[in-house]
């Protein structure tokens, strides 16, 4: 397995904390993002650092969490 990047690790932690703060289960956020609870294993792998994700998936997750990422130059 490839070494996780700092950005992905930070995103994984952020995703978990934000989801918990919203009172959502992995099944709940899966249903919001994908329209089905069946993808909760995917959510789990992201949050535990076992899965890297694409920018498209990151964008969908951020939208579901009512969040965004700001880059500082």
Quote the distance from N terminus to C terminus.
Answer: 31 Å
Unreliable stretches covering 5 or more consecutive residues: none
Residues in helix, %: 55-70%
- Our Rg estimate from Cα atoms comes to 12 Å
Corresponding CATH architecture: Orthogonal Bundle
How many E-type strands?
0
The tally of structural domains comes to 1
What is the global morphology? globular
CATH class: Mainly Alpha
Q: Tell me, rounded to a whole number, the average pLDDT.
A: 89
Helix and strand string, N-terminal first? HHHH
Q: In what range is the share of β-strand residues?
A: under 5%
SS content category: mainly alpha
Number of helices: 4
InterPro entries: Cro/C1-type_HTH (IPR001387), Lambda_DNA-bd_dom_sf (IPR010982)
Organism: Flavobacterium keumense
Protein name: Helix-turn-helix transcriptional regulator
């Amino acid at each position: 397995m490839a070494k996780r990047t700092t950005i992905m690790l930070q995103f994984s932690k952020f995703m978990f904390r934000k989801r918990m703060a919203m009172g959502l289960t992995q099944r709940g956020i899966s249903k919001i993002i994908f329209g089905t609870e069946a993808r909760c294993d995917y959510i789990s792998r992201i949050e535990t650092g076992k899965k890297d994700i694409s920018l498209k998936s990151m964008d969908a997750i951020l939208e579901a969490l009512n969040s965004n990422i700001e880059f500082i130059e």
